[in-house]
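Key idea: predict the complex, not the pieces.
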Amino acid sequence: MSGAAKGGSLRRFARRFWRHRRRLALGFLSIPLAQLGDVGITLLIRDALDKIEAGDGADHLASTFWFVVGVALLYGLFRFSQRWFIVSVSRSFERELKQDLFDSLSLLPFSFHDRTRSGDVVSRATSDVENLRMFLGPGTMYCAGAFVILPVTLTLLFSVHPQMAATIILPLILMGLTIRLTAPRLHKWSTAVQESLADISSRAQESFAGVRVVRGYAREEERSERFAQDSGDNRDNQIALSKWRGLQSAVIHLANDLCFAVILVLGGYGLLAGELSKGDLFLFIDLVIKVFWPIIALGWMAGIYPRAVASAKRVAEILDEESEIRERAEPVELGEPAGEIQLSGVGFVHDGAPKPTLSGIDLNVAAGSTVGVVGPTGCGKTTLLGLIGRLHDATEGVVSVDGVPIRDLKLSSLRGALSYVPQDSFLFSDTYRNNLLFGADEHLEDEELERLIETACMTEEVAEFPNGLDELIGERGVTLSGGQRQRTCIARALARDARVLILDDCLSAVDTETEGELLQGLRDAGDARTVLVSAHRLSTVAHADHVLVLTEDGRVADRGTHTELAARPGWYQETWERQQAEEALGEL
Amino acid sequence: MSDDWIDPDIVAHKGWDTSLLKRLLKFARPHAREFLKSIGVLTGVFACALLGPWIWKEAIDGPLAAAIDARAAGDTPDMAPFLQWIGFYLLVVLANMGFYYLQTAQLLRTGQLVIHDLRTVLFRHMHRLDLPFFDSTPTGSLVTRVTTDVENLNELFTSGLVVLLFDAVKIIITLGLLFTIDPLLATVVVALTPVMIAISIIFRGGARRAYRTVRARLAAKNGYFQEVLSGIRVVQIFRRERRVMERFDGYLDRYLRANLRTIFLFAVFFPVLAFVVNLIQASTIWVGGTRIVGGELTYGEFLQFWFYLAMFVSPIRDMGERYNVIQSAFASAERIFQVLDTEPEIKAPATPRALPAHAGMEAVRFEGVSFSYIPGREVIEDVSFEIPPGKTVAIVGATGSGKSTLVSLLLRFHDPSEGVVTHDGADLRQYDPRAWRGRTGLVLQEDYLFAGTVRENLVMGREDVTEESLARAIEMSSCGRIIDNLEGGLEGEVAERGATFSTGERQLLAIARALAADPALVILDEATASVDSATEAAIEEATRNLLKGRSALVVAHRLSTIRRADEILVLHHGQIRERGTHAELLGKGGLYAKLHALQFGEDTEGRNKG
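Result:
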C-alpha cells in the first residue's frame, strides 16, 4: 500500500474532524501557550537559582513565587481549554460519524445486511470509530503538545550546553525507537489476548446455551477442560503481553535514568569547569522530566497510526457502500394501488452462492386474493416474499405490482403499498403502543389500536399488562411468548392501511384454533386486501385462493387450491396428512 | 422511559468488604510465592526511586562541591570520588530497569495465575449446578460471570490492592524523607497534601458517577443500534428509516452529553492538580531558596527535594482510581461468590451404586412419579410405566402435557417430588448422575452443535466412541452424504450454532451423535420442523436404527415412530390417559383409536408414512 493511499482514507476523516474548526482552533492555540507556560515555570526557577548563586540574596524569591503562581494559573487555564475543546470535538466527531453510519446502514438494502455479519458491522461502528476518534482527537492533541515542547526544550538546552543537550538526545531516541519497535509486538499480543478472551466468552456462551446436551451426555468435565484450555491460553497470552509491556516500560525508564546520568556526569563537570550554573543544571533536570511524557505520547501515536488507517478504511467502506436497490431516473408513483402482483420467470441467487435460491417462479396474485407459499424448510419462501418489497432484487425475471415492474416504481410508493409481518417476529424494546404505532403512517387513537389488537387476538393479553398499552416489552418489560409476539407483529402490520399484506410464516407459534380465528379476522378486516402468506403449517394456507408449493431447491413443485393439492399425491399431501395426524395426537 | 436504566451486569460499585476479601485471598494463597515476589519487586522499584535522588545529593554536595572548592583554591580537583558515585548511580539505573520490567511482568503474571484458577473453578462449579439455574438466568449474564467479572478481579490483584497499599507506604516514606531534608519545606508539602488527596477523591467520585451514566447510555445506544440492524427488514418495508434515525440521534445526543461531562471533569482535574503541584514548587523555591541563601540547605538537597516531589505526586493522583478499581472488583467478587455459594441439589451420593459392568440396560421404571416446580401445581402426576430392556416407550400428548418433564426426570435433570424412577430396581438417586447419563444417548428437538469439527461434535470427547463405532453411527444415521458434501468431511468446521446445516441435517447429526457411543438407553425428543420427503425418509430410517434393540423413551411426533413403539403413553395434563401398543390402542376404541380412524380412514396398516 502506498503512503498516499494509506493517508488518503484517514484524510477524509481528518476533514470531517476539521468541520469543528472554531473549537479546534481554540484548542490547538491553547497547546503552545500551555507548553510555554510549563517551560516558563522551569525558567523562572532557574533564574531564581542563578540569582542565589550570584549572591543576590533572598529578596527576589517572593516575586519568583508570585510569578510562578501566575504562570501556573495561565498554564492550568490553557491546559483546561486544550483538553476541553479538542477532546469534546472528538466526541462530536464520533457522534456525527456514528449518525452517518447508522443512516447509511438503515438505508442499505437487505442484501447488504444479509452478507455482512452484524458483529462486524457493530465493531466498525464502535471500535473502529473509537480508533479514529482517539487518533484524531487525543492523539493529535498529545502530538501537537510534543511538537511544541520538544523543539523549544531542545533549543533551550542546546543554547545552554550543546554537548550535554546532544548527548541527552541519544537515550531519548532510544526510547522513541523502542516504543515504535515494540508497538507491533504489543499489538500482536494484545490482539491475541482479545481473541482468546473472545474464545473464552464464546466457549462459555455455547456451553451455557447448550447445557442440556452437555448435561445429557455427561460432558461437563470435557467442557470444563476445554474452557480451562481457553482460559489457560488467555493467561499465557496475557503473560506474554505483560513481558513486552514490561520490556517497554523498562526501556522507557532506562532512557529516562540515562538522561539523568548524563546530566549528572556532564553537568557535574560543567559545574566544575564553570561552563554551567546551578540554575542551568536544574533547567536540564526539570525539562527532561517535562519532555518525558510527550515523547512517550509520540511513540504511542506511531503505534496507533496504522490501526487508525485500517479503521478509516473499514468505516469508509460502510459509508461508501452504495445501495444496489436503486430507483430509476424517473420512477413511477402508484396512485391508488389495486394490489395485483405478478411474478414472471423470477429467480434469485444470493451473492456468491453456488446455486440459486429461487428459479423460474411464475405467479399471478389477483388484487384482493390470498395466495399461500409453502414448501420444505429452506425452500426460499422468505426470499420470495422479500422480493416483492425489494428487500432483495430478483436476479432474473420481473416482479410487477399493478402491471408495473417494481424496478420502475418509486421505492417509497412501492413499500407504502405493502405491509409486512416478518418470520422472526421482530419487535422493539419499547412500549406496546409504540410498537403498534411503528406500523402506522399517521397517529392512531387508542380505540383504533384496540380494534387492531382484537383482530390480532391479543385483547386478553394486553388487558393483563399492568401498564396497558404503555407496557414496555422486551428484556426491560414484559416478555411475550412466541405466539404473542407474532400476533403483535400482525397488529402492527394492520396499523398501516396497505393494499398488500405479506405474512412470512408468522403464525407458527400460534395454536391452530387462534390461527383460524385470526385468519378469519384478517379476511373480515382486509376486504379486498391482497394477502401473500408463507407457512410451515399448511392449515395456515388451507383457505387461500391459490397455493404455490416450492421444492427444496426453490422451484415450483405444484400449485392449486388446498383441496386440489391435498388430493394429489406429493409433498403437500404427505405433509398435510402428517401435520393433521400430529396435530390430532398433540390434542389428545 | 428512563435512558439511564442500568444493566445489572454493568459493573456496579460496592464499599469495602473484609469478608469478601478474605474469600478472595483464599484463591491467592496457592500463589503466595508470586505475591511475595510482587512485593519484593515493588520494594525494589521504590528503593531505586529513593536511591537515585539521594546519590544526586551525595555526589553534588560531597565530592563535586569539594572539587569545585579545590579548583577555586587552585588545587587539582579529585574527581575519582564523584565518578564512584556515578558508577553507583549507573548500577541503580540498571537495577531500576530490571525492577520496572519485573513490576509489569510479575504483577500481571500474578493476577493472571489467580484469575485463571478462579475462572476455571467457577466454570466447573457452574456446570455442576441444576438446570433451573440455567433456565432462570439469561445466558449473557452467565457469560459475564466468567468473563467481565473475573477480569475485574484481575485488576484488583494487579493494580488494586497491593499497589494501593504500596502507594500509601510510598507517600508516608517520601514525606518522612522530605522532613529529613528540610522540615520547613516538608511542612509546606504536608499542608497541601490533604488538598491534593481531597481533589483526587472528589474528582474520582464525580468521574465514577459520570462514567456510570456514560456506560448506561452507551449500552442503550449500542442496544438500539443492534436492535435496528436485526429488524432492518421491518424498518425498510415500513419506510421507517427516518424515524429510527431520529431516535438514534436522540441516543447519540444523550451519550454525547454524558461524555462531555466526563471530559469536563478530566479537563478540570489535571490542571487543578498540576496547579497545586506548581504551588508546592513555587513555595519550594521561595522557602528553599531563602534557606540556601541562609546556608541551611545545600544545592544538592534542593535537587533531591525536587526529585522526591515529582515522585510524591503520582500515587496521590492515582489514589482515587485505585479505589474505584477495588470497589468494582468487590461488586464482581460478590456476584461470583453468589454463584459459587449455590449448591446443586442433584449430586452423586457418597458411595454411588455401580451400573452393570456390561454396557446394557436393565428395566427402567417410573413408579408413582409426580413432579412440580411450584408445590401444588403438578406438572406430572402419579405416572407409572416401565421401559423393559430393549423396548421403546413413546409418549404422545399436547404441548405442556409434561412430555419433556418425563425426559428431564429420566435424565435426572430434576428429581421427582414424589415416587421414584428406578433402574434395575434401584432408585436413580443411588447412582452417580453423570455415570447414569453417560449410558444414555440423547437427541433433542433443537439439538445443539458446538464450535469445532463435525468429528468433535459427534465424538464429544467420549472415550467409548471408537473409529468403528463412529463410522457405524454415521452409516446408520444416513449422515454419510452430509459429511461428504462438507468441505473437509469429518474434520470440517461447524459454523456458529450449526448454521452450516439445514434443520433436517442437524437432526440426522444429532442421531449420529447419540449412536456413536452405542447407548443402551435412548432418549429422543422428536423435532417437528417440516423437511422435504427425502430428508424425512432419511430421518425415519435413522430413527428406526437408533431405536432398534435399545431401551428408549421417545417424545414422539412421527406416526412411523409411534407405530413401532412397544408401548404408547397418551399423556394429558401430566397424567397417563391411555396406554398400550398401537394395535391395542386401536383395538380399545378409545381416544387414540377414534382419532387415528378420523385422520387415516381404513388405511392404517399399508402406509409407512403418516
